[in-house]
Structure formats: structure tokens, C-alpha cells
Specification:
The structure holds two protein chains of two kinds.
Chain A (H helix, E strand, L loop, with lengths): L1 H11 L1 H22 L18 E4 L5 E3 H4 L5 E7 L4 H14 L4 E8 L3 H11 L5 E5 L3 H6 L6 E6 L4 E7 L4 H15 L1
Chain B lengths: L1 H29 L6 H26 L6 H6 L6 H7 L4 H22 L5 H25 L23 H30 L4 H33 L9 H26 L3 H23 L13 H25 L15 H33 L7 H21 L15 H21 L6 H18 L7 H23 L1 E7 L4 E4 L2 E12 L3 E11 L4 E4 L2 E5 L4 E5 L1 E4 L3 E9 L6 E9 L1 H20 L4
Antiparallel strand pairs in B: 1-10, 2-3, 3-4, 4-5, 4-6, 6-7, 8-9, 9-10
Helix pairs in contact in B: 1-2, 1-6, 2-4, 2-5, 5-6, 5-7, 6-7, 6-11, 7-8, 7-10, 8-9, 8-17, 9-10, 9-12, 10-11, 12-13, 13-15, 14-15, 15-16, 16-17
Classes of the chains: A alpha/beta, B alpha+beta.
Chain lengths: 187, 623
């Protein structure tokens, strides 16, 4: 009862109301902030490639639309990697193998990396990519739906649809799976 | 085994917490005069249990027990023992356990050291503090348990980030946490004092010790963080206005303001509400900082490791505490005795109030710079980044009036004083300082925002604080801290103005000329170490007369595979020579960055002086 009286009094206190409302406002902003895409998952449709996503190329720094790169072959692979990422080294051999199957063009997105390190990585281990794009602050990869490195997406070039997504490095099992999907989709 | 011990002792601590909350609220209702012995024993049990679980985590790290998930994720058998131990709090789970440990131990110390005070006040402090402790216990046990089992037991761990293998960083988090957690005691006890209606001189005297001790730890913690950034990151700076750094600076501003205000409360019994508000704000900022850093809302580099439920938990917990504090403040605000003693415009009280205004201004700048990008992104999903220029442009000009008030303020008397005390001597000093600064700027042709008044007032404050050592007006701790601050401003200014940088691609045997110096790449060796391989380069830098050798390294760690550049820094009392190199390609060329940075040592030294003032004040006998 006493509490109720006090509460009634306090509701009339304009300072109190303002402070409470203000802190609630901050609370909800932070709460929303926690859900925002660059922390966790974007709320967009993840099976389609965003139409307006542009990247800078690694070597000549030209802006390019990601969608334009996805039409050379039947299938594309988008691989998000970085020179500082150890698992990326492990999966590199599979990307080189995929490149030799010539039905796929492989697009690399260099994630939060220094250009010099990225270039060194490719000259040391070989370049499986038909095009290397950069994502300096990691925001573009997030819009693609990435949550870390490495990640690999297999895209059907006809309808620009992401067929499968691999979080983490490619291995022998995933490699075979990719080849199988390509085989099936063609028939 | 240690996993089970750690886990169960945390559960016992949780039960102790629940018991304490009930018992203390019962005792408050029964208005007992003496502290229940049950409460004392429950608190001892709780501290002991958290201590045991902390040591069992350290033990698991020492023996590399990879059946523990935290150890598996953050340790490796080849790591040196020292870093195995420091690795136990170098990760999310372990660092929270450390928070909890300090929380319980501080509460225990509080209980012992507050025997002379009102029983109700002590009980209420325990109650509020236990609310914080229970929150952390639930958080640790259910969202970030450091004692999760792994089966089958892996043979080898996945290592600790090599950048974190540094002595300054190994002790940096614990020291900073001591500061953060100290603010929790201030928070609980200020709320308790408010409820008991004892926001007065006696309380101020008691809580001042806690404020000073938290402030010392926070200051030294920030210093260690900067030292780590300077020596280890190899970017050639010590403060980058990075959100994670800002987060430790915000409670520091608030705590510094509180440290000054509490003196007014102690001496004059005014500014009661303001003291309480500052206490609440300081703790909210410490907790908010933990939220910002731990939830991943600020950075998204390692989103794999982030569990969204963690962020939501800390956020809700933080706001429950904040709302509780606001409610209590508004309900019991009337209990604060209205002190009708008059305050005059020219007095020490006003001077300290002015200090508070500046602190609040600096705080808001840093707060806005850190939080605004998050707000903007949520509200209209645009991404901005706020860099050092924002902070420099907003903070640096205001240092000019700040230093002026800092020079004059401490000389004023309590209650009422007159301005005629600003005598000719001081004016002459001021004009002299401005002239010296003008000549200096002309001589070196510096072009920087407000540089003449900045250096001028820096000098003025410096000279006045030296002169103060011979007067009896203020306390020794204040003199040392303020002198340290003037030294700090001057070293930062000169460091900022006279730093010279040089970058080039060089191969072994190359020579480069830079101003009046010659930099020569002498040789390069490969050294195998226990847990890394190292490229050790040898450069000589000579300026005609003297020559120094700098030996930077590039380390290649195995677990996880990472490259780090170790800068070599040659420090003298006048200047630092900083050299770092990077691998570019396999063609024998290396990217070399050389910096000449004057007065770096003095920046560290002046911060040590500033905290030394606090330490002296802590050990000073009460009069």
C-alpha cells in the first residue's frame, strides 16, 4: 500500500518519468543493436544474392557489381577468406581443384585483410579465383549472410540462387558434395 | 576433477547468495543492532567458494587439462607457465570468474572495514552487492560456464592469441577489474546510505577510501593497457580512441569527478544528491562497458564465439540495476538533509564543481563517440565510424580553460574566498609561459589547433604546481597528482608535435637517410623458439655522433598460426626510437617503419605520478 502511494506520487514527478523513459529508450536501442545484422544474422532472404552489392577489386581497386561476375559459367562459388585465417590455408587446395573443373568460376572475397598480406597469400599458395574482391570492414560479407571466415557459397548462375552454404573450411567430403550437386543440377 | 570442484563451488556460492539476500532483508526488517553472525559466515563461505573455483580454473590451465572446454580453447602445452596462468583470465569465461572473485572479496573486505558504521547501512550494502553478485553467478553458470566438459578429451589445445602473450596485458585485466568492481561497492553503499538517510560527512569519509582505491586501480589499469598497445601492437601510438579503450576511460572520468566531489561532501556536507548520482553513474558506466565489450555489439571480428543470449543477459541485468537505482534515488531523495549553508561563487566548492563540469563534458564526448554509431545504425541503419579527430577536436580546446581552473582552483579556500589572491606573481608566470610557448612554436614552425595557449597553459600549470610544493595550502596527494597531470599534458603535446615518422621498403644492407639520421638494415636471422619461429632483424640508427641498434622481430606462432610484429623500442628519458618491420613478399624486401617519439617515458611517468597522488591519499592518516 505504502509503495502504491509512493508510486502514485512519483508518476507525477516529471523528472522521474523523463529519466525512466530515457533509460528505457537506451535499453531498447541496445536490445535492437544486439539483433542487428553485423552481429548475428541478417534478416534478409539469404538464398538470393543481393542485387546492389558492390565490391572493390583487390588488384585494381575498381568497383564492381557482384551480380555481374556471376554469369560467366554455369555455377559460381563465392569464397570468403583472409590471409590471417588458418583454416583458409587448409581449404585452399580444394579451391584450386575446383578451379580445374572449369564449370565453375570462383569469386574470392578477401575479408578484413591487408592488401599486401592478401597478395602474398595468393602468390604463395596459388590463385584459384577468377576475381578477387575486398571487404575491408567486413560489412559486405555480412550482407551476403556470412558469419565468419572461411565461408563458401555455391551459386547457380541462371537464377542467381545460393544452392548451398558451407560455414568453415572446405574438406574432402564437402568437395565431393559440391561436385555432385553440379552434376545433378546440370541434368 | 577440477572441473567438478569449480562448478560445484560456484553453485554453493549461488546458494550462499540467495541465503544472504533473504537473511539481510530479514535483518533489516527486524531492525537488529548487531550484524547476524550467519551473514558473516555465509559471506565467508561465498568468498571461499568463488576463490576455490577460480583456483581450480587456474589449476586446469597449469596442468593443461583439455577436458575443460575453456582450457582447450585458450591454452596449449607449449605455452610458458606464466601465460598459461594469465590465459585463465584472458578469455570471456575466465575474466567473468575474475570479476566475480573480486566482487565477493571486496564485499568481504567492506564488511570487515565498516564495523563502526550503522548496522542497517551495512546490511543494505550487502543486500545490493549480493544482487549484483547473484546476477554475475547466474550469468557465469548458465551462459558462460568456464567448467564445461569436453569428451573425448583432445590431445592439444587451440592456443591463446599470441598478441595476448605480453606481461603488461597479463596483469592489465585484473588491475582494471579491481577498479571496475570497486565502483560496485561505491554503488551499493551509496544506495544504502541514501536509504538510511546518512549521506553525510561520516559516510563520505568512509566511502572516500573505496573511491580512491578504485580510482588508483582504474588509472593503473588504463596505463597498463596503453603500455601494452604501445609496445605490443606496434602501431606507434598508445591511445587510439578505440571503443574498447574508451569504455575504460568513461568510468574514469566519472570516478575522477566523484573523487573530487566526495571531498566537498566530507568537508562541507553539500552536493549530496550529486554524489549519489555520480556513484550510480560510475558503476553503470563500468557495467555498461562490460556489456559493450562482452556482447559483441561493438566489434564483430569473432562472431563465431559470440552467443546472443550473453549480450541480452548483461543488458537486462544492467538495466534492472539502473532502474532499481533510479527508483531508490527518487523514493529516498527526500531523506537527504537540506543543507542550508550558503555556497559562494569564489570558493573551493565552486572550483570543484567546475572540475566536475569539465569531467562530465569529456565523458559525454567519449560516450557519444562510442555509442552514437550503434544508435545511428539501429535507427536508420547507416554505418559511420568515429575516429581520433572527433575526440581531439572536441576535447583538446577545452583543455585550455580546464588547465586554467586547475591552476587556480586548488588555491581557493572553502566557503568563501576572494579573487584578489590571484596576485601579480601568477600573472607574470602566466604571461611568461605564453611567451615561451609562442617562441617555441615560432622556432619549430608548428601548426596545430590552439597550440600556443595549450603549451602556454601547460607550462603555467607546471610552474604553479611546482611552486605549490613549497606552500602549505593543499595536501601532498593533490600536489603530486596535479603536478603529474601538468607533466602529462606537456609530454603529450610535445610528443604529438615532434613525433617524426619514416617508412620505406628495405632489404638487408640498405641504407636510408631521414632528417639527420641514417638508418641501416644490418642483418636478418631466423631463430627457433619454444612456441614460435622468429625473424630477427638488426637495424642501426645513427645521427653522426651516436648510433643505436634496434632489433625488431617478426614472430610466426604455431598455435594458432599467426604473424606478429614485435617493434623494438629504444627508450631514453628524452625520446623513444621505435622501429618495426613487416614481411611483404619473398623477394628480400621488408617494409620498415621508423619513428622518433620524444618524451614517451614522461607520459608513463606522469600517469604514475597522478596515481601516486591517489596512493598517498589512501594511506594518509585521517585527521
Amino acid at each position: 500500500m505504502v509503495l502504491l502511494v509512493i508510486l502514485k506520487k512519483m508518476i507525477k514527478n516529471i523528472k522521474f518519468i523523463i529519466i525512466i523513459l530515457f533509460s528505457l529508450f537506451i535499453f531498447f536501442i541496445f536490445l535492437k543493436g544486439l539483433e542487428k545484422p553485423n552481429n548475428y544474422f541478417p534478416e534478409k532472404n539469404l538464398n538470393k544474392i543481393e542485387t546492389n552489392l558492390t565490391f572493390k577489386k583487390l588488384y585494381d581497386q575498381k568497383e564492381v557489381l557482384l551480380l555481374e561476375l556471376i554469369n560467366n559459367n554455369n555455377f559460381s562459388i563465392i569464397n570468403i577468406w583472409a590471409s590471417w585465417c588458418l583454416p583458409c590455408r587448409d581449404e585452399h587446395i580444394y579451391l584450386l581443384n575446383l578451379k580445374s573443373t572449369d564449370k565453375i568460376n570462383i569469386i574470392g572475397i578477401n575479408y578484413k585483410d591487408k592488401k599486401s598480406n592478401a597478395v602474398k597469400f595468393l602468390s604463395d599458395l596459388g590463385n584459384p579465383y577468377s576475381e578477387v574482391l575486398t571487404d575491408l570492414d567486413g560489412t559486405k560479407s555480412i550482407e551476403l549472410g556470412a558469419i565468419g571466415v572461411p565461408e563458401t557459397y555455391l551459386v547457380n548462375n541462371k537464377n542467381k540462387e545460393i544452392l548451398t552454404k558451407y560455414i568453415g573450411p572446405l574438406d574432402a567430403v564437402k568437395f565431393k558434395e559440391i561436385l555432385k550437386i553440379i552434376e545433378n543440377e546440370k541434368n | 576433477m577440477s572441473n567438478q570442484i569449480g562448478n560445484y563451488s560456484l553453485f554453493i556460492a549461488l546458494f550462499a547468495s540467495i541465503f544472504l539476500i533473504f537473511q539481510s532483508s530479514n535483518s533489516i526488517r527486524s531492525k537488529s543492532k548487531n550484524l547476524d553472525s550467519k551473514i558473516f559466515s555465509a559471506l565467508s563461505v561465498q568468498s571461499l567458494m568463488v576463490l576455490i573455483s577460480f583456483f581450480s580454473l587456474i589449476y586446469a590451465f597449469i596442468i593443461s587439462d583439455f577436458s575443460n572446454e575453456t582450457v582447450y580453447n585458450n591454452s596449449h602445452t607449449t605455452k610458458p607457465l606464466f601465460y598459461k596462468i594469465s590465459g585463465s583470465w584472458g578469455n570471456h569465461e575466465g575474466s567473468l570468474l575474475l570479476w566475480l572473485l573480486v566482487l565477493t572479496i571486496f564485499l568481504f573486505i567492506f564488511l570487515i572495514s565498516s564495523k563502526k558504521l550503522l548496522n542497517k547501512y551495512r546490511l543494505l550494502t550487502i543486500l545490493f552487492q549480493e544482487l549484483i553478485i547473484i546476477g554475475f553467478l547466474i550469468f557465469i553458470l548458465f551462459t558462460s560456464n568456464p567448467f564445461l566438459n569436453l569428451f573425448p578429451v583432445p590431445k592439444e589445445g587451440t592456443g591463446l592469441n599470441p598478441i595476448l602473450q605480453d606481461p603488461a596485458l597479463a596483469i592489465h585485466p585484473p588491475i582494471l577489474y579491481l577498479g571496475y568492481v570497486g565502483t560496485s561497492i561505491i554503488f551499493s553503499s551509496s544506495l544504502a546510505a541514501l536509504v538510511c538517510g546518512m549521506v553525510n560527512k561520516i559516510w563520505a569519509k568512509h566511502i572516500k577510501k573505496w573511491i580512491v582505491i578504485s580510482w588508483i586501480f582504474l588509472t593503473i589499469g588504463i596505463l597498463l593497457g596503453s603500455i601494452w598497445a604501445y609496445y605490443e601492437l606496434g602501431w606507434g601510438g598508445f591511445w587510439f580512441w578505440d571503443p574498447v579503450e574508451n569504455v575504460s576511460l568513461m568510468p574514469w572520468f566519472c570516478l575522477t569527478a566523484l573523487m573530487h566531489t566526495i571531498i566537498v561532501l566530507e568537508k562541507r556536507n553539500i552536493y549530496q544528491s550529486w554524489t549519489i548520482i555520480l556513484s550510480i553513474a560510475t558503476f553503470s558506466l563500468s557495467m555498461g562497458g562490460t556489456f559493450l565489450v562482452r556482447s559483441g555489439i561493438l566489434n564483430s571480428i569473432h562472431t563465431f564465439a559470440n552467443d546472443p543470449s550473453r549480450g541480452i543477459f548483461i543488458l537486462c541485468f544492467l538495466f534492472v540495476l539502473v532502474l532499481l537505482a533510479i527508483f531508490i534515488f527518487f523514493i529516498f531523495q527526500k531523506k537527504i538533509m537540506k543543507n542550508l549553508s550558503k555556497t559562494f561563487f569564489v570558493s573551493k566548492e565552486t572550483a570543484i564543481l567546475i572540475n566536475n563540469w569539465f569531467m562530465m563534458f569529456f565523458l559525454s564526448v567519449v560516450l557519444i563517440g562510442t555509442v552514437y554509431p550503434i544508435f545511428l545504425e539501429v535507427i536508420n541503419s547507416s554505418k559511420i565510424s568515429i575516429g581520433p579527430p572527433f575526440y581531439q577536436k572536441l576535447i583538446v580546446p577545452f583543455l585550455i580553460p580546464f588547465m586554467l581552473f586547475m591552476a587556480v582552483g586548488p588555491k581557493l579556500k572553502w566557503i568563501k574566498d576572494n579573487l584578489s589572491k590571484i596576485n601579480l606573481n601568477q600573472l607574470v608566470l602566466l604571461i611568461l609561459s605564453i611567451i615561451v610557448s609562442y617562441l617555441l612554436v615560432k622556432l619549430y614552425g608548428v601548426n596545430y589547433l590552439f597550440i600556443i595557449p595549450l603549451i602556454g597553459l601547460g607550462f603555467f600549470l607546471f610552474l604553479l604546481t611546482i611552486k605549490d610544493f613549497f606552500s602549505k595550502e593543499s595536501t601532498l596527494s593533490q600536489k603530486i597528482s596535479h603536478f603529474g597531470f601538468s607533466l602529462f599534458i606537456l609530454s603529450i603535446l610535445f610528443n604529438g608535435i615532434f613525433t617524426k615518422e619514416f617508412t620505406s621498403n628495405m632489404k638487408v644492407g640498405d641504407k636510408r637517410e631521414f632528417i639527420n639520421k641514417t638508418i641501416k638494415f644490418e642483418n636478418l636471422k631466423i631463430v627457433e623458439k619454444n612456441n614460435y619461429k622468429s625473424l630477427v632483424a638488426n637495424f642501426s640508427v645513427s645521427d653522426g655522433k651516436d648510433s643505436i641498434n634496434l632489433i625488431p622481430e617478426v614472430r610466426i606462432y604455431n598455435q594458432p598460426k599467426t604473424l606478429t610484429s614485435e617493434a623494438d623500442i629504444n627508450s631514453t628519458i628524452y625520446s623513444d626510437n621505435f622501429l618495426v618491420f613487416n614481411v611483404i613478399k619473398d623477394d628480400g624486401y621488408y617494409n620498415v617503419r621508423y619513428q622518433y617519439k620524444p618524451l614517451m617515458m614522461w607520459i608513463w611517468f606522469s600517469i604514475i605520478l597522478i596515481s601516486a597522488g591517489g596512493i598517498i591519499s589512501y594511506f594518509k592518516k585521517d585527521d
